[in-house]
Amino acid sequence: MTVRSAILLSILMVAGCHRHRDDSKPDVLILTLDAVRADHVPGFGENPASMPNLGKWIASGLRFTSAYTSAPITLPAHNSLFTGNYPWTHGVRTMAPVQTATPRQNLVLAAQTQGYQTGAFVSSVFLKPEHSRINGFDVFDTPRRRRMARGTVAAATAWLEGVPADRPAFLWVHVFDAHWPYRPTTPHFSDCPEDVRSHVQVGVAQMRRGFVVAKNPEPYWPTCLDELYRSSLAEMDEALGALRAAAAKRGQFAWVIVSDHGECIGDEPGLMGQHASTLAECAVRIPLAFGGLASVPAGTISSLASIVDVAPTLARALGWPMEPVDGTDLLVSRSDRHVRFESPAPPRPRGVARLLGGRVNDEKMVFDPDHHVLRAWKILQDRSEEISPTLLSGAGQDLARVVMTAPLPIDAAVEFPGTGRSSRGPAREGRGGGPPSEPPGVTELRSLGYIE
Ligand SMILES: [Zn+2]
């Protein structure tokens, strides 16, 4: 080899190392924050100093400040995120592993078709593909039960570093630190009395099981629980700084940050560290932000949005074909917009109704089909005010009719045969005695805080 050809070869090799992928195919990062309520997130009501990494990240994108989940429960909501469909369309309506057809279309499969390398890094075993039906990932990394954000982010960034520079990456990272039971390494208490702190975790766990707690620190519980929750959020935020840096190191990346549902912390009597059994704002309102796309400017949009809109919005912005779904492209405004949500009856010993709900303009309604009760609210900027359903506007009454005649959510108790944990009916009497053996998955569900 001549000196000239050796130099030429070395130039080509250097050029090859820095070869970049097609500009029309940025990396895509979907970050889901499990059980993170909107009003605790910077840009959605919270001070950016509380979560500096997330605060800066979200401020660089487009925020939807009136966004709702499709169901305040992890599996149905994540399925809505990736398929663009409501639970009654995609068929995953509870936390139980369900026998539903794997979808032919979702964001991940669309990314694969476009030549993306796809990786999922989740923090709860219940999102594994056999449970979640979220298919199309080349790599699907799940913990044995649950893990903190720093572990999930470390696994995700290691994978990202291994994706060739000329191949676009589609990465889903799910963090679970804010999900009950809250276990921050270093809880920061300021307003929670010292003698109450040690009782909070235990007391709330007992209350969630329906027990009357002998010691009575109840007036302080929401404050103490909120401080534990915020401590978990702060630790989650620390880990997310490394994720953003790793994604930016590879070049341009499009991103979505969204929660699967909120979390209620004493917002209503009995709602402590819970989300699945209610359609209250604390459970269904979610933070949602997009960024890293030329067609998406930074800013704030207050019109209604849903988790089902993420897939069609992202697909359209990236130029990926997608068949029509329940969700809509959020970058195209629609005057007739409404959003809907449902809650199955979770398999808890205490009677909890399944619920169907929706919102149009500033009116929200929730229907309890088992007791045939419809309730309605005006949603104001920082609170909601219950109104008589007869006072709903024409658009509100139209949506109420749709909600009241919709297919019923599945009774989750049916999905856990033999647990003795039906939300109503004779199986409730099984409480206390317990079944001789539990179906697969029930122990894990309990350890993760989904059932008591
Ligand atoms: Zn969740």
Helix and strand topology:
Layout: H1 3-17, E1 27-33, H2 52-59, E2 62-68, H3 74-83, H4 87-90, H5 107-113, E3 117-121, H6 129-132, E4 139-141, H7 149-162, E5 169-175, H8 194-208, H9 221-249, E6 253-259, E7 264-265, E8 272-274, H10 281-284, E9 285-291, E10 299-306, H11 310-318, E11 338-343, E12 355-360, E13 363-368, E14 373-379, E15 384-387, H12 394-404, H13 442-447
Helix pairs in contact: 2-9, 7-9
The chain binds zinc ion.
Residues 34-35, 74, 260-261 line the site of zinc ion.
Short description:
By secondary structure, this protein is an alpha/beta fold. The chain has 13 helices and 15 strands.
What would you say this structure looks like, in words?
- This protein is of the alpha/beta class and 452 residues long.
- The chain has a domain at 24-335: Alkaline Phosphatase, subunit A, CATH 3.40.720.
- It contains 13 helices and 15 strands.
- The protein has an 8-stranded mixed β-sheet, sandwiched between helices. The protein has a 5-stranded antiparallel β-sheet with strand order 11-12-13-14-15, with helices on one face. A two-stranded antiparallel ribbon has the order 7-8.
- β3, α6 and β4 (139-141) form a beta-alpha-beta unit.
- The N and C termini lie far apart (73 Å).
* Low-pLDDT segments, ≥5 res: 1-18, 211-217, 412-440
Number of strands: 15
Number of helices: 13
What does the overall shape look like?
A: globular
The distinct bound ligands, ions and cofactors come out as:
zinc ion
